[in-house]
Specification:
It contains 6 helices and no strands. It folds into 2 domains: 1-52, Arc Repressor Mutant, subunit A (Orthogonal Bundle), CATH 1.10.10; 68-115. The chain is globular, with a radius of gyration of 16 Å. The longest helix is centred in the C-terminal third of the chain and has 17 residues, at 98-114. It has 115 residues and is mostly helical.
Amino acid sequence: MPASKKSNTKKILEMTLDGMGTKEIATKLNVSYSTVTSARKRGRDKGELPKIEYGSPLSHGSTYYLRRGCIGDIISGLSKDQLIWLVKEADNYECETLAEVILEMVRDAHAEAKV
């Protein structure tokens, strides 16, 4: 019998607080990537997870200032083979948008760099 939504949400929040990534949680619980991201958003909205601090390192005038650019620049800068690879990676990450793929790739690279 499958776990209830409430039970999965509680597990997702606990695993998040333990430092697990979205893809890892989705795999362990056998749920979709979007199920995990939705549960995390609800957890943040209810105060059960810490809010994400946006923008501070990329704010103009910051020591780490970096122009944001746009996703269209990424797409137009890639070859057809690179775009096909990117679409396949999106499927592997269970992402629906290029922004989600980039987010997951950066999170994975950052986690590996910390090791």
